[in-house]
Specification:
Blueprint: H1 2-6, E1 12-14, H2 24-40, E2 47-49, H3 59-70, E3 78-80, H4 84-88, E4 92-104, E5 107-112, H5 116-119, E6 126-127, E7 140-145, E8 158-160, H6 162-167, E9 173-179, H7 181-185
Parallel strand pairs: 1-2, 2-3, 5-7
Antiparallel strand pairs: 4-5, 4-9, 6-9, 7-8
Length: 204
């Protein structure tokens, strides 16, 4: 009934399939359902917005999917992807400072100004290590805790070298790459922790 009433105003479909395990076959299944709807109701689709969630699909997979996609619809069809996370997944770096440290053997516990809950939402941070010596064995364990001291506001244990452990003194800087664009979009001052200061840099 609704389709009959709006048929003359029909523009297209939008879906957003958000998952950490997306595959091309998943998207093809959703698109196949839309194709069946268009055929069964004689709908002239002009726009297909497939949302986001494609950050875990590689370039070759996307090229294959796009080649298949354009063959399923009329030439005038406009395809839209929401590429926020796909474009910004690994674009950021975060810089913080060590507030306190405690070391027992090869286990180093530090408290930093960085809070995963406040500053690293949807990120998978990777430490940027500056080697101060010739050792490269990652046989030390680094535990990074936030100033909230909330039990889940911490990073997973990180394997580092001895030179990196020695360099992480109270007051020294600590850096992580692989910070998602969503981290700054969801940046918050929860529990009195200051928001991260955001800076944008254009690469040459």
């Amino acid at each position: 009934m609704l389709i009959r009433l709006l048929k003359h105003r029909f523009e297209g479909f939008h879906f957003h399939y958000g998952s950490e395990t997306n595959s091309i076959e998943d998207y093809k299944k959703h698109v196949a359902r839309i194709i069946n709807l268009c055929r069964s109701h004689a709908l002239n689709i002009r726009t297909l917005d497939m949302g986001g969630g494609i950050h875990c699909i590689d370039r070759i997979g996307m090229e294959s999917y796009l080649a298949w996609l354009v063959g399923q619809f009329p030439k005038h069809t406009r395809f839209i992807f929401e590429l926020g996370r796909a474009l910004s997944e690994n674009a950021g770096v975060i810089l913080g400072r060590v507030r306190n440290r405690h070391q027992e053997g090869k286990i180093l516990n530090i408290v930093t100004t960085i809070s995963p809950t406040c500053h690293l939402r949807w990120a998978n941070p990777i430490i940027l290590e500056n080697q101060n010596g010739e050792d490269s064995a990652l046989d030390y364990q680094l535990n990074v805790m936030a100033p909230t001291f909330y039990e889940s506001d911490r990073l997973r244990p990180i394997a580092i070298s001895r030179s990196m452990a020695d360099s992480l003194k109270t007051g020294s800087s600590i850096r992580f790459r692989n910070i998602s664009g969503y981290s700054w979009a969801l940046n918050t001052d929860f529990n009195g922790i200051p928001k991260a200061s955001i800076r944008f840099f254009e690469s040459s």
